[in-house]
Automatic annotation (TrEMBL), chain A:
Catalytic activity, EC: 1.10.3.-
GO cellular component, one term: plasma membrane
Domain Cytochrome oxidase subunit I profile: 38-554
Membrane topology type: Multi-pass membrane protein
Protein name, entry field: Quinol oxidase subunit 1
Catalytic activity: 2 a quinol + O2 = 2 a quinone + 2 H2O; 4 Fe(II)-[cytochrome c] + O2 + 8 H(+)(in) = 4 Fe(III)-[cytochrome c] + 2 H2O + 4 H(+)(out)
Localisation per UniProt entry: Cell membrane
Keyword Iron attributed: yes
Organism: Peribacillus deserti
Gene name per UniProt: qoxB
Database matches in PROSITE patterns: COX1, COX1_CUB
Automatic annotation (TrEMBL), chain B:
Enzyme class: oxidoreductase
Mode of membrane association: Multi-pass membrane protein
Designated name of the protein: Quinol oxidase subunit 2
Source species: Peribacillus deserti
InterPro entries reported in the protein's UniProt record: CcO_II, CcO_II-like_C, Cupredoxin, CuRO_UO_II, Cyt_c_oxidase_su2_TM_dom, Cyt_c_oxidase_su2_TM_sf, Cyt_o_ubiquinol_oxidase_su2, QoxA
Family: Belongs to the cytochrome c oxidase subunit 2 family.
One annotated Gene Ontology cellular component of this protein: plasma membrane
Role summary: Catalyzes quinol oxidation with the concomitant reduction of oxygen to water. Subunit II transfers the electrons from a quinol to the binuclear center of the catalytic subunit I.
Automatic annotation (TrEMBL), chain C:
Membrane topology designation: Multi-pass membrane protein
Any Pfam family: COX3
Protein name: Quinol oxidase subunit 3
Known function: Catalyzes quinol oxidation with the concomitant reduction of oxygen to water.
Compartment annotation: Cell membrane
Top-level EC class as recorded in UniProt: oxidoreductase
Keywords associated with the record: Cell membrane, Membrane, Oxidoreductase, Transmembrane, Transmembrane helix
Residues covered by the Heme-copper oxidase subunit III family profile domain: 1-197
Organism whose genome encodes this protein: Peribacillus deserti
Gene: qoxC
Record's keyword annotation contains Protein biosynthesis: no
Protein transport keyword on record: no
Length: 648, 311, 198
C-alpha cells in the first residue's frame, strides 16, 4: 500500500474529488462513445497517425481550446477568492497551486499550441507548399506537446499540483520548501512539451526557408509567414536554455544536486536568470505570430496592402534580437546595482521603438482603405488601443528605479495580461474566426462573434484596469487574501465581475461553434473574406496535397493580384504528387514519453528505464525503416479537383 | 457603436483620474527614494497617456473616415508601399521619447541605489532585515537589539537595510518609503531608505514565498530621534536576550506576532558570506556592498557569454 | 524520387537537402544548449562548498588521451565521408567503424575519469561545482554514446543496402554531428580542463 500512497493528493478538497469523478466519467464516456459509434479505426487512421499539417493544426487547436477552459476556470477561481477581503473559498495552498497552474497552462499549453495550430494550418498554405519539411517530426512534436500537457494536468488529481508559481523560483521550488511532486510535474511536463516545441521550431524554419513556392522570395512572404519564421528562430535559440534549466531543476529535486539549493554552493538566482533568458524570448514567440495574424487581418479587411512591409519585417527581426538582451528586467530588484539595471532598462525600452513602428504601420494600413468591420477585424481594432496600453505600461515597468515599486505587484499582473490578452489571445481568436472557414468549410456566426469581442473587451477592462490601481496601492501579486482595511476590496470585486464577463465571452465562442455547426451555410466558396494571400487560392476543404499545381508567385499578394490583375497562379499541368505516409510511431512515442514522464515525476525507476529504452527503440526503428511515402496519381488529382471545383 | 466607444472613454477617464489621485500608497511617498520613484511614475503616466491618446485619435480617425459604409461601392483602395518620411517620424519620435526616458531611468537608478538625497552627510543607521518563513527579523547591530515583524526607525535619518533570507527569496518592501529589493539566502543586498517625517507605514514581503506569503507583513514606525533613542533604551532594559535556541525557534515556519530581544542573531547566525566558497564576502559592512556588486558583475559577464553564443 | 546527379549524393534529393538544413538548425539549438551549460559552469565553478575544486580534481593525462581519441575520430569520420563520396563501401564502413571505436575509447577514459573523481570525494551531489561539472561532461558524454549507436545503425544499413542517397544523407548528417561533438569537446578541454588546471 505504501507504494500507492505517493499518488494521493497531499492537500485534498471536495473540488478535487469532484474533478476526479468528472475526469473518470468523461474518459469512460469518450471510450464508450468511440466504441458505440465504431470510431476507433477512424480515429486511428485519420487523426492519431496523421502527418498532415492541416489535421495536426486542428488537433493543436482543439487542445488549445480545452486548455483555455482549464486555465480559465483557474482564473475564475482566483478572482472569486480575491473578490472579497478575507474570503474563505480557497486556502493558501490551493490558491498557490491554482495560480501556478493557471500561468503554466495559459502560456505553455494554451497560447503556445494556439500559435502552433495556426502556424501548422496556415504557413504551408501561405507559402504554397504541400506539407512541412518533416511531416512525421511534426506529428511527433504535436504528440509530445499533447502528452506534456496531459501529464501536467493529471497533477491535479494524482500527487498534487505545482505550487511555486509558473516561474517556479528556487529555492521555493526546491525539495526543502515544496515537498509534493507538483514541481516534478512542472519540470518534466514542460520538458516534454518543450522538446516538441523545439522540433517544431527546426521543422518550420526549414519549411519556410526551403519550401516556398517558385517566385516567393523572402521579401515576398506573407507577414504571418515572416512572423512565424522569426518566432521559430527564437524558439530554436531560446528553448534549449529552458531544456537546460528544467534539467538542472529536475536533478536538484530528484538526484540531490546543488544548482539552485541554499546549501553546498547552490545559487538560487541562477534559476531566475536561466528561466528568463528563455522566458522573455518566449513572450515574443507568442506575440510575433500574433502580430502576423493581425497584419493579415487588417490588410484583408482594409482592402489594402500592408503599409510598410519592409519596416514590418525589420521591426520583427530587431524585436527578436532584443528579446535575448532584456531578461534581467524581470528582476531589477535582485540588487545587481545601478549600472546593470540601467543597461537592461535601456534595452527594454528600446523594444518600444520597433513595436511602435508596427502599431503605426497597422494604423496607416487603414489609411485610404475600405474598412469592413467583420469579427476578425473587430478583434484587430480592439487589439490596437488595448495593446498600446499594455505596451506603454511595459515601458513604465522598464524604468528600473520605478520598477522597485511595480515589481511583484498587481500592476505587473495587469501589464502582462494587458499585452497577452489583447495581443495573443485576441490574435488567436481572430485567427480562429478568420481561418475557420478554410479549416471547416463554414463560417462562424458574425453576430455572436461581435458580441464575443465586445464582452471580452469590456470584461477585460473591468478585470485588469483595477489591478493597475491596486498595484500602485501596494497589493502584491500572488496574495491569496487581504484584509478589509487595505481598501482593495471594491477593486478586486470589479476584477471578479470583469472576469465573469470575459467568461461569458469565452462561453459564447463555444456556443458560436455549436450554433454555426448547426445553422451556418456550407456554400461559402474558397475565399469568403475576399482575401489576398495564397492560402485562399486553394479549395475549401483543402485537399490533402494543398495545391494541385505549385503556384507561381510574383508579388507579396499573389492571390489578390490574380483576382484583380488576372495574373495566372497555376501554370502547367498536373503531375503526380509525392506525399508522406501516415505513421503510428509519433503517437506511440508520445505515449511512451507520457509513461516516462509519469515514472520520472514519482521517481519510479524501473519503468523509467524501460520507457527510456522504449524511446530509443522507436528512434532506432525509424532509422531502419524505409519509407519513401506515396504518390498521388494524375487521375486521382483530376478527380479530386473536379469534385472540389464542383462543390464551389 | 458610439455608445460602446463612450463606455471606453468613461473607463479611461476614471482610471486617469484615479491614477492621479495620490492616496495610492506608492504615489503618496514619505521619503526621498519613494518620492523619486513616484515622480518618475507620474511623469511616465503623462507621457504614456499622450502616446495612447495619439494612437486612439489616429485609430478613431481612420475608422470614421475610411469605413466601407462611407465609401462608394466601386472605390478601390490604392496600393501604398510606405513613405520614408512617415516611417522616419514613426521611428524618430519614439526614439526621442525612449532616449528621454532612458536618461530619466539611469539618473533615478543611481539615486535609489545611493544614500537618499539630502541625507548624504548623515551616518546611516544600519539595520539587518532577514526573512524566514513567514516573518521578518530586524537586527540593529549598533544598538545590539532585535525585533520580529516590526521596525522602528528614526525619521530624518538615512537607513541602510542589509537584506537576506533564511529560506525562499523574499522581497523587502515599504511602499511609502521606497521600492523593494530581494532578500536571498546566499548573498546580502543593500537597500537605502529614509523617512522624511514620523509616521506609520505598511511593510511586506512582496515576493511569493509559499503558504504564508499573504500574511508576511511587518509594521513600520518612523519617529523622532529622541523617541527612537528612548525606545532603544527601553528595549535594552526590558527585553529578554536572544539566544541561539530562541532564534532557531523563531526560524520555524509559521506566523508570529511582534517580539523584541536584547542582542542580535548576527553573532551566532551571521549573514551569508564566504561559507559557500569562492565568494569571499568581507564581513565589514562597507566592503560587503562592493563585493556584492562584483559578484553580480561577474554573473552578468557570464550571461553575456551566453548571449555571444546566440549570435 | 527525383535524384539530382549534379549534387553530392547526400544532397541529391529534395528530402535530403531539407534534412541537411534541418540538422544544421538543430546544431544551432545544440550550441545554445551547450552554451547554457558552459555559462552555468562558469557561474558555479568557484562554488565548491569546501569540496574539491577544479585544480585538485583535474588530471592532464586522461584528458589528453580523450582529446586525442576524439580529434582522431573526427579525422576518421571525415575519411569515411570521403570514401562514401568515392562510392567505396568497404572503406567507408571501415572508417566509420574506426571512428566508433575511437568514440568508445573516449567514453571508457571519460568513465574512468568519473570513477576517479568519485574516489576523490567528488560526486554529483558534493557541491554546485561538481554538480555542473558532471552535468556538462555527462551531457557531452551522453551525446557521444547516442552517436555511437547512431553510427552503428548507419554502418548496418550501409552494409545491408549499400550507399544509397538515403544512407549517404544519414552518414553525412551523422558526420556533422560527430564533428560538432568534437568542437564542443575542444571547448570543454580549453575552458573547463586547461583553465581549471591553471
Amino acid at each position: 500500500m505504501d507504494f500507492f500512497d505517493r499518488f494521493a493528493i497531499p492537500h485534498p478538497s471536495p473540488v478535487i474529488y469532484a474533478s476526479m469523478v468528472a475526469i473518470g466519467l468523461t474518459v469512460i464516456a469518450i471510450i464508450a462513445g468511440l466504441t458505440y459509434f465504431k470510431k476507433w479505426g477512424y480515429l486511428w487512421r485519420e487523426w492519431l497517425t496523421t502527418v498532415d499539417h492541416k489535421r495536426i493544426g486542428i488537433m493543436y487547436l482543439i487542445s488549445a481550446l480545452l486548455m483555455l477552459f482549464r486555465g480559465g476556470v483557474d482564473a475564475i477561481m482566483l478572482r472569486a477568492q480575491l473578490a472579497t477581503p478575507e474570503a474563505k473559498l480557497l486556502d493558501a495552498q490551493h490558491y498557490n497551486e491554482i495560480f501556478s497552474t493557471h500561468g503554466v497552462v495559459m502560456i505553455l499549453f494554451m497560447a503556445m499550441p494556439f500559435i502552433m495550430a495556426l502556424m501548422n494550418f496556415v504557413v504551408p498554405l501561405q507559402i504554397g507548399a504541400r506539407d512541412v519539411a518533416f511531416p512525421r517530426l511534426n506529428a511527433l512534436s504535436f504528440w509530445l506537446f499533447f502528452m506534456g500537457a496531459m501529464l501536467f494536468n493529471i497533477s491535479f488529481v494524482i500527487g498534487g499540483s505545482p505550487d511555486a508559481g509558473w516561474t517556479s523560483y528556487f529555492p521555493l521550488a526546491g525539495n526543502e520548501f515544496s515537498e509534493s511532486v507538483g514541481t516534478n510535474y512542472y519540470m518534466i511536463a514542460i520538458q516534454i512539451a518543450g522538446i516538441g516545441t523545439l522540433m517544431t521550431g527546426i521543422n518550420f524554419m526549414t519549411t519556410i526557408l526551403k519550401m516556398r513556392t517558385p517566385g516567393m522570395t523572402l521579401m515576398k512572404m506573407p507577414m504571418f509567414t515572416w512572423s512565424s519564421l522569426v518566432a521559430n528562430v527564437i524558439i530554436v535559440f531560446a528553448f534549449p536554455v529552458l531544456t537546460v534549466a528544467l534539467a538542472l531543476g529536475t536533478m536538484d529535486r530528484l538526484f540531490g544536486t546543488h544548482f539552485f539549493t541554499t546549501d553546498a554552493g547552490g545559487l538560487d538566482m541562477l534559476w531566475a536568470n536561466l528561466f528568463w533568458v528563455w522566458g522573455h524570448p518566449e513572450v515574443y514567440i507568442l506575440i510575433l505570430p500574433s502580430f502576423g495574424i493581425f497584419s493579415e487581418i487588417i490588410s484583408t479587411f482594409a482592402k489594402r496592402n500592408l503599409y510598410g512591409y519592409k519596416s514590418m519585417v525589420w521591426s520583427m527581426v530587431v524585436i527578436a534580437g532584443y528579446s535575448f538582451l532584456v531578461w534581467a528586467h524581470h528582476f531589477f530588484t535582485m540588487g545587481q546595482g545601478a549600472l546593470t539595471n540601467s543597461i537592461f532598462s535601456i534595452t527594454t525600452m528600446a523594444i518600444a521603438v520597433p513595436t511602435g513602428v508596427k502599431i503605426f504601420n497597422w494604423l496607416f494600413t487603414l489609411y485610404k482603405g475600405k474598412i469592413e468591420i467583420t469579427t476578425p477585424m473587430l478583434y484587430a481594432i480592439h487589439f490596437i488601443p488595448l495593446f498600446t496600453i499594455g505596451g506603454v505600461t511595459g515601458v513604465m515597468l522598464a524604468m528600473s528605479a520605478a520598477d522597485y515599486q511595480y515589481h511583484n505587484t498587481m500592476f505587473l499582473v495587469a501589464h502582462f495580461h494587458n499585452v497577452i490578452i489583447p495581443g495573443v489571445v485576441y490574435a488567436m481568436l481572430a485567427g480562429l474566426t478568420y481561418y475557420w472557414p478554410k479549416m471547416f468549410g463554414f463560417m462562424l456566426n458574425e453576430r455572436i462573434g461581435k458580441w464575443t469581442v465586445w464582452l471580452l473587451s469590456i470584461g477585460f477592462l473591468l478585470a485588469f484596469m483595477p489591478m493597475y490601481i491596486t498595484g500602485l496601492d501596494g497589493q502584491a501579486r500572488r496574495m491569496y487574501t487581504y484584509s478589509e482595511s487595505t481598501g482593495y476590496g471594491p477593486w478586486n470585486m470589479a476584477s471578479f465581475i470583469g472576469a465573469g464577463i470575459m467568461a461569458i465571452g469565452f462561453a459564447l465562442i463555444v456556443y458560436n461553434i455549436y450554433y454555426s455547426i448547426r445553422y451556418a451555410s456550407r456554400d461559402i466558396g474558397s475565399d469568403p473574406w475576399d482575401a489576398r494571400t495564397l492560402e485562399w487560392a486553394t479549395h475549401t476543404p483543402v485537399p490533402e496535397y494543398n495545391f494541385a499545381i505549385s503556384p507561381q508567385v510574383a508579388s507579396i499578394e499573389p492571390f489578390w493580384d490574380s483576382k484583380k490583375k488576372g495574373q495566372e497562379l497555376f501554370k502547367g499541368s498536373y503531375e503526380k504528387i509525392h506525399m508522406p505516409n501516415n505513421s503510428g510511431i509519433p503517437f506511440i512515442m508520445g505515449c511512451i514519453f507520457f509513461a516516462w514522464g509519469f515514472s520520472f515525476v514519482f521517481g519510479i525507476w524501473v519503468p523509467l528505464i524501460l520507457t527510456t529504452i522504449g524511446i530509443f527503440v522507436c528512434m532506432a526503428l525509424r532509422s531502419f525503416e524505409i519509407d519513401h511515402g506515396h504518390y498521388i496519381s494524375v487521375d486521382e488529382i483530376e478527380e479530386t479537383e473536379t469534385k472540389l471545383r464542383g462543390a464551389n | 457603436m458610439r455608445f460602446k466607444w463612450s463606455i471606453l472613454a468613461i473607463v479611461f477617464t476614471v482610471i486617469t483620474v484615479l491614477s492621479g489621485c495620490d492616496r495610492l500608497l506608492v504615489l503618496d511617498p514619505k521619503g526621498p527614494q519613494a518620492k523619486t520613484q513616484a515622480d518618475d511614475i507620474i511623469m511616465t503616466i503623462w507621457i504614456m497617456a499622450f502616446i495612447v491618446l495619439v494612437v486612439f485619435a489616429l485609430l478613431v480617425y481612420m475608422l470614421v473616415k475610411y469605413r466601407a459604409s462611407k465609401q462608394s461601392k466601386d472605390y478601390e483602395p490604392p496600393h501604398i508601399e510606405g513613405s520614408k518620411l512617415v516611417e522616419a517620424i514613426c521611428i524618430g519620435v519614439p526614439i526621442i521619447i525612449v532616449t528621454f526616458l532612458s536618461i530619466m531611468s539611469v539618473k533615478s537608478n543611481y539615486e535609489v541605489e545611493a544614500t537618499p538625497k539630502g541625507y548624504e552627510n548623515q551616518k546611516p543607521l544600519v539595520v539587518y532585515a532577514s526573512s524566514s518563513d513567514w516573518k521578518w527579523h530586524f537586527s540593529y547591530p549598533e544598538e545590539n537589539i532585535e525585533t520580529v515583524n516590526y521596525l522602528y526607525i528614526p525619521a530624518d535619518r538615512p537607513i541602510e537595510f542589509k537584506l537576506y533570507s533564511y529560506g525562499p527569496i523574499t522581497s523587502f518592501w515599504i511602499p511609502q518609503l521606497g521600492g523593494q529589493k530581494y532578500a536571498m539566502s546566499d548573498m546580502v543586498t543593500t537597500l537605502h531608505l529614509a523617512a522624511d517625517e514620523p509616521g506609520e507605514f505598511m511593510g511586506r514581503n512582496a515576493n511569493f514565498s509559499g503558504k504564508g506569503f499573504a500574511e508576511n507583513t511587518f509594521d513600520v514606525k518612523a519617529m523622532s530621534q529622541a523617541e527612537y533613542d528612548e525606545w532603544v533604551q527601553e528595549v535594552k532594559e526590558t527585553a529578554k536576550p536572544l539566544s541561539e535556541k530562541k532564534f532557531d525557534q523563531l526560524l520555524e515556519p509559521g506566523h508570529l506576532g511582534r517580539s523584541t530581544y536584547n542582542g542580535t542573531h548576527l553573532k551566532f547566525s551571521p549573514p551569508p558570506s564566504a561559507e559557500n566558497g569562492g565568494h569571499e564576502h568581507n564581513s565589514t559592512k562597507a566592503d560587503k556592498e562592493d563585493m556584492n556588486h562584483a559578484d553580480h558583475e561577474n554573473m552578468e559577464h557570464e550571461d553575456m557569454n551566453m548571449d555571444d553564443m546566440n549570435e | 524520387m527525383k535524384i539530382d546527379n549534379s549534387l553530392p549524393l547526400e544532397y541529391s534529393t529534395e528530402e535530403n537537402s531539407l534534412k541537411v538544413l534541418g540538422f544544421w538548425i538543430f546544431l544551432g539549438a545544440e550550441i545554445m544548449l551547450f552554451g547554457t551549460l558552459f555559462a552555468t559552469y562558469f557561474t558555479l565553478v568557484d562554488r565548491t562548498a569546501g569540496g574539491p575544486d577544479s585544480a585538485e580534481l583535474f588530471e592532464i593525462a586522461p584528458v589528453l588521451i580523450e582529446t586525442f581519441l576524439l580529434l582522431a575520430s573526427s579525422f576518421t569520420i571525415g575519411l569515411g565521408i570521403h570514401a562514401m563520396r568515392l562510392g567505396r563501401k568497404k572503406a567507408m564502413m571501415a572508417f566509420f567503424g574506426i571512428t566508433l571505436l575511437l568514440g568508445l575509447g573516449f567514453l571508457s577514459v571519460e568513465i574512468y575519469d568519473f570513477v576517479m573523481y568519485v574516489h576523490e570525494g567528488a560526486t554529483i551531489q558534493t557541491s554546485a561545482f561538481t554538480s555542473i561539472l558532471f552535468t556538462t561532461l555527462g551531457t557531452h558524454g551522453a551525446h557521444v554514446t547516442l552517436g555511437f549507436f547512431w553510427g552503428l545503425f548507419i554502418i548496418l544499413q550501409v552494409k545491408k543496402r549499400g550507399i544509397t542517397p538515403q544512407n549517404a544523407n544519414k552518414a553525412f548528417i551523422f558526420s556533422l554531428y560527430w564533428h560538432f561533438l568534437d568542437v564542443v569537446w575542444i571547448f570543454i578541454f580549453s575552458f573547463i580542463y586547461l583553465k581549471g588546471m591553471m
